[in-house]
């Protein structure tokens, strides 16, 4: 669907009063029958348009994967495929996911860099020394414990309990060191990278990251907050997929400028490794009726009814001051009771 369409919505004074009456019943501090208590000076119809651009990106990168080589056959014959040309199934809709694909004919055998090809490396627990600090004496060579002393009788004949005594004993280890529990004192362990083989198989892995972006621009000529106006129900004025640029759209200048701004915001951050797979632009049109009214002897005020579900934004609507006063008095009484209880 590439052409915009718009439906004309109308709102009569009677309908506006009914909507405002229903809205006034949903808030505790709102004056009831709001619509019947005002004098409507006029109703004008405008529209808020929510432009949403959804973009699907693809980012490709290579990483090396190393595994122990046990003499098995390797795939190193043939022309190595260009990572950008390897086919990967794209997402059916805008989503975030990562796919890893092994690059054909990229396997090779190299010496293990972790152990230098020896198959064994220094033990990480003892750093190649073969011994570690004793857990019992923490490397000091001595162990200490506290002994309770028997009670004694003082000069007055009363039993007293002397303070406990700290007793130091030589630890059974060798100068605070014990044999390493990992290498058993051998200082070396089997290399975990090559599993003791001294060589590793290296292959290239293509990492394809699909990411989605969802940018929104709102054209709202009223005082209704943009996020609130977009919550109202409306009609889909425009839906275009696939979409490459604003030149494809038969729209007015304001909408075209908004789409161009969204396109600029969704450019790939790194065009060398990222590319755009697809774009989709939608325009939702939410009708808004601006109601100019007078309440009592006050000056003219404005309220807005928006969306086909008839939501209301009326920042200067009259309040039910009797209820406000009742809540205020009830709060003072509650505080007085609390203060009275605390003083007793």
What does this structure look like?
The protein is an alpha+beta fold. It has a domain at 120-190. 15% of the residues lie in helices and 37% in strands. The chain contains four helices and 16 strands. The strands form five sheets. Strands 1, 2, 3, 12, 13, 14, 15 and 16 form an eight-stranded antiparallel beta sheet that branches. It has a two-stranded antiparallel sheet with strand order 4-11. A hairpin with a 5-residue loop joins strand 7 and strand 8 (159-160). The longest helix has 22 residues, at 321-342. The protein is flat. It starts with 12 loop residues before the first helix and ends with a helix. The mean pLDDT is 87.
What summary fits the major beta sheet? 8 strands, antiparallel
Q: Quickly give the structural class.
A: alpha+beta
Radius of gyration: 39 Å
- The count of DSSP E runs of length 2 or more, i.e. the number of strands, is 16
Q: What is the typical, i.e. mean, pLDDT?
A: 87
Please tell me what the overall shape is.
flat
User: How large is the share of residues in beta strands?
Assistant: 35-45%
SSE ordering: HEEEEEEEEEEEEHEHEEEH
Straight-line N-to-C gap: 76 Å
Poorly predicted runs are none
What is the helix tally? 4
Helix content: 10-25%
In short:
The protein has helices at residues 13-24, 226-229, 253-265, 321-342; strands spanning 38-68, 97-102, 108-111, 120-122, 131-133, 142-147, 152-153, 159-160, 165-170, 177-179, 188-190, 199-219, 235-240, 274-295, 301-306, 311-313. It is of the alpha+beta class. The longest helix is centred in the C-terminal third of the chain and has 22 residues, at 321-342.
């Amino acid at each position: 669907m590439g052409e915009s369409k718009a439906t004309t919505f109308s709102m009569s004074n009677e309908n506006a009063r009914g909507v405002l009456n229903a809205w006034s019943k949903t808030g505790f501090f709102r004056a009831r029958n709001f619509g019947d208590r005002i004098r409507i000076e006029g109703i004008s119809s405008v529209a808020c348009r929510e432009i949403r651009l959804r973009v699907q990106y693809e980012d490709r990168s290579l990483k090396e994967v190393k595994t122990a080589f046990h003499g098995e056959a390797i795939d190193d014959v043939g022309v190595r495929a260009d990572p950008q040309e390897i086919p990967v199934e794209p997402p059916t809709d805008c989503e975030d996911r990562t796919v890893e694909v092994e690059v054909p004919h990229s396997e090779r055998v190299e010496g293990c860099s972790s152990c230098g090809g020896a198959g064994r490396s220094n033990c990480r627990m003892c750093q190649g020394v073969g011994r570690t600090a004793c857990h019992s004496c923490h490397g000091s060579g001595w162990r200490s414990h506290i002994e309770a002393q028997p009670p004694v009788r003082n000069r007055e004949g009363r039993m007293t309990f002397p303070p406990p005594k700290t007793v130091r004993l030589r630890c059974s280890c060798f100068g605070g060191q014990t044999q390493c529990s990992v290498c058993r004192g051998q200082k070396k362990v089997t290399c975990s990278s090559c599993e003791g083989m001294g060589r590793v198989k290296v292959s290239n892995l293509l990492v394809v990251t699909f990411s989605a972006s969802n940018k929104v621009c709102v054209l709202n000529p009223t005082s209704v907050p943009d996020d609130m106006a977009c919550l109202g129900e409306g009609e889909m004025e425009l839906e275009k997929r696939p979409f490459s640029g604003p030149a494809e759209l038969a729209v007015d200048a304001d909408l075209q400028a908004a789409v161009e701004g969204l396109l600029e915001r969704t450019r790939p951050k790194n065009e060398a490794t990222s590319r755009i797979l697809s774009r989709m632009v939608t325009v939702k049109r939410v009708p808004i009726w601006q109601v100019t009214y007078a309440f009592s002897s006050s000056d003219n005020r404005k309220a807005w009814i928006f969306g086909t579900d008839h939501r209301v934004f009326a920042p200067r609507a009259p309040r039910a001051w009797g209820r406000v006063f009742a809540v205020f008095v009830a709060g003072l009484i509650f505080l007085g009771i609390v203060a009275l209880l605390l003083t007793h």
